[in-house]
């Protein structure tokens, strides 16, 4: 171990000398003989001090920038998640409004036709053995649904139930080539058959059994109805004829109709669990499109200028004589068209979301 006894006196002398120098320098101020040494030291070490301070500041700013970037990234992620959540809420609200509107239209159709329905929603679209165009709905036998029941939406005929499970059912759409529905022309007795073409968003084929009957574009079709209302109840709107084919020599006349129900975008539907007591005929059809009145099509006629109250000589013109009204000697016809009220379908409702026709 090194002997430090000799270094101790030297260290003590140096400390005393340093204290003396500091005291003298402090009392002398700028007149201190050591002032030149302090200025020289400041000139030498000042750049180093500034450089060190700049480095420290730059490092601090860099750390702050890195921390701020991480925070900004987290904030951006939170904002994106919030944006997606709000988009989901808006989409759900929009879907709820659309479904509410579809449900109101469905209940209106059921009320006009006096159909007792069970409401459901389409949950899947798939093909099943033997059929090409079917959908799955979320109601089944527990809700009173059975096979061979009519399925409608708020606009018209959708199809029929071909399989009913406890909680779900399979519906054969009107557009399927295997679908065949008896149909009648609005306001007439001529009947025919509506068949699918395999294209849900396109037209269906209508074959009129009477070759002498007249078919025209714009004629509307309703379901003729099956025996005991299965598989199809009467009076359900099917579609509007858009094209008529000339088929000389054939036993039937063919036309193509656009279905009222949008079979490619189904959501809310109703299964008719009980049909009407009487055929509603054309009462379920929507109002026909308005036709322009003859008066609006006539050209406006210019009114004759009225004669002056004074004649050419300045004398007052003689008063006009109003012809006496001519009485009609014939008896006035009376309209006796009091429509028969359609009776409400009765009976015990099945279990499920059943809505009786109003």
Automatic annotation (TrEMBL):
Q: Which GO terms describe its biological process?
A: regulation of cell shape
Q: Please note every region of biased composition (Basic and acidic residues).
A: 330-347
Rod shape-determining protein MreC beta-barrel core domain: from which residue to which, for each copy?
Answer: 130-272
Region annotated Disordered, chain positions: 277-358
Q: Which Gene3D superfamilies match?
A: Rod shape-determining protein MreC, domain 1, Rod shape-determining protein MreC, domain 2
- Tell me a GO cellular component: plasma membrane
Is Ribosomal protein one of the keywords UniProt gives this record? Answer: no
Record has Phosphoprotein as a keyword = no
Q: Which domain of life is it from?
A: Bacteria
What keywords are assigned to this protein? Answer: Cell shape, Coiled coil
Q: Which InterPro entries match?
A: Cell/Rod_1, Cell/Rod_MreC_2, MreC, MreC_beta-barrel_core
Coiled-coil residue windows? 69-96
Q: Name one Pfam family in it.
A: MreC
Q: Which residues form the signal peptide?
A: none
Family, similarity comment: Belongs to the MreC family.
Q: What is this protein called?
A: Cell shape-determining protein MreC
Q: Which organism is it from?
A: Thermostaphylospora chromogena
């Amino acid at each position: 171990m090194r002997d430090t006894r000799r270094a101790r006196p030297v260290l003590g002398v140096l400390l005393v000398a340093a204290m003396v120098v500091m005291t003298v320098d402090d009392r002398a101020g700028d007149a201190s003989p050591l002032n030149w040494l302090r200025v020289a030291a400041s000139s030498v070490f000042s750049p180093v001090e500034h450089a060190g301070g700049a480095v420290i500041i730059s490092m601090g700013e860099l750390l702050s920038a890195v921390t701020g970037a991480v925070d900004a990234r987290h904030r951006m992620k939170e904002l994106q998640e919030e944006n997606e959540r709000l988009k989901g809420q808006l989409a759900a609200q929009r879907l709820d409004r659309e479904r509410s509107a579809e449900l109101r239209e469905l209940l209106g159709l059921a009320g006009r036709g006096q159909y007792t329905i069970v409401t459901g929603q389409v949950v899947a679209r798939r093909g099943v053995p033997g059929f090409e165009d079917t959908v799955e709905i979320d109601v089944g036998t527990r809700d009173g649904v059975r096979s061979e029941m009519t399925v409608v939406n708020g606009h018209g005929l959708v199809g029929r139930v071909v399989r009913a499970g406890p909680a779900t059912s399979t519906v054969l759409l009107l557009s399927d080539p295997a679908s065949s529905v008896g149909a009648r022309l609005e306001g007439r007795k001529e009947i025919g058959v509506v068949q699918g073409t395999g294209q849900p968003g396109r037209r269906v084929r209508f074959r009129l059994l009477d070759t002498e009957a007249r078919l025209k574009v714009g004629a509307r079709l309703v379901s003729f109805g099956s025996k005991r209302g299965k598989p199809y109840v009467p009076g359900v709107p099917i579609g509007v004829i858009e094209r008529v084919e000339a088929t000389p020599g054939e036993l039937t006349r063919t036309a193509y109709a656009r279905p009222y129900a949008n079979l490619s975008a189904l959501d809310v539907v109703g299964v008719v669990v009980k049909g009407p007591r009487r055929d509603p005929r054309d009462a379920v059809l929507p109002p026909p499109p308005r036709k322009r009145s003859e008066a609006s099509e006539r050209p406006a006629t210019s009114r004759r200028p009225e004669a002056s109250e004074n004649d050419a000589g300045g004398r007052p013109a003689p008063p006009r004589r109003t012809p006496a009204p001519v009485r009609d000697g014939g008896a006035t016809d009376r309209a006796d068209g009091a429509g028969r009220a359609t009776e409400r379908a009765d009976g015990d409702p099945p279990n499920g979301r059943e809505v009786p026709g109003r």
